Amino acid sequence: MDSALKFTKTILLGGLCFFTLYTLSILSVRADIKPFEFQFTDSLDLQLSGQMSGDYRPALDALKRNDFRAADELSRGYVANNPKDVYAHLLLVLTWIALGDDNAIQVHFGELKNLSPDIFVSLSSEIAKFYARNKRYYQALQRLNAIASPAMPSDMILLRGEIHEIQGNISGAITDYESLLQQEPDSPGYLLAASRLYLLDDQAQKSREYSQRLARFRPNVALPHMLFGTASMMMADTASAKTSFEKVLALNSEIIDAWNRLGSLELLDENYQAARSAYSKANSIQGNDDARHGMVI
Q1: Buried b / exposed e across 135-164, counting CB within 10 Å, b at 16+?
Q2: 286: phi > 0 → left, psi -120 to 50 → alpha, else beta; which?
Q3: By the 8 A CB rule, do 241 and 267 touch?
Q4: Which DSSP symbol is given to 38?
Q5: At residue 291, does pLDDT exceed 50?
């Protein structure tokens, strides 16, 4: 009987941790990069209007009406007349993207890297953002990875981390957020992302470390405690997990996942009445299969 109960507990805890990781993997796709169709329309207009020096409107209008040959001729003239203006280069490279002239793009970036490093970094950043908005993540990473690490702006490190996460490269995303945390060690956003990513990478101890740091800055926010509790569950530290989920529910009693996980932990500790009560609370918020199944037990 005891061995059967231990087996049941192991299956329950393992299944709960698997469900947690699965849920986190779904939630890991960030909404910060909003894709749009690969067209030179209003999105491009908003990106460039008011930022360009000189009268670049004719080339921009040519891009918007898909007259790429005219845009190419005009943009070459802009670059010749304003070689230090990143937006002149941006119009030219966007035109080549539309024409599919990858060789011209590579040659141009190669020349800029040697002759105008500042323009190279700024232009690489703008083109990377453009590719990312169009969900062309491979090309975006190519542009970002061409920037030397010391010269990469923090917003580009963040963009690369987001792309890595979208592509499922969790270790790459962790590296980027660790780099950001070296610059801003107390950033709640970076601490949150790192804690969540370490959970996805099955590094529960590191996740707990970052969620604990985050809780110091946001003690009255439920999410750090939720992350700490989830990481504690993965480490089979049920006592710490229960305490964390109780903190979550003290802050917000409507979080169904916290009630369900607390119920599962009470069940593991053979506190059947407490488990049933937790599942009942979850079920009262929203009828869900996890809570109903727990109440049957």
Answers
A1: ebbebbbbbbebbeeeebeeebbbbbbbbb
A2: beta
A3: no
A4: S
A5: no
161 is a domain residue:
no
> What is the number of domains present in the chain?
1
Tokens at 294, concatenated: 């727990």
Residue 294 has pLDDT above 70, yes or no: no
**Contact by Cβ (8 Å): 53, 82:** yes
Is the pTM higher than 0.85?
Answer: no
- Residue 277 is part of which domain span? 1-28+207-297
Residue 267: inside a domain: yes
Among left, alpha and beta (phi > 0; psi -120 to 50; other), residue 168 is left
CA distance 160 to 193: 13
Please identify which residue in the block is written with the tokens 């923090």: 154
Could you tell me the CATH number of the domain that includes residue 289? 1.25.40.10
Residue 295, amino acid? M
Q: How many residues does the chain have?
A: 297
How far, CA to CA in Å, does 22 sit from each of 17, 18, 27, 157? 9, 6, 9, 26
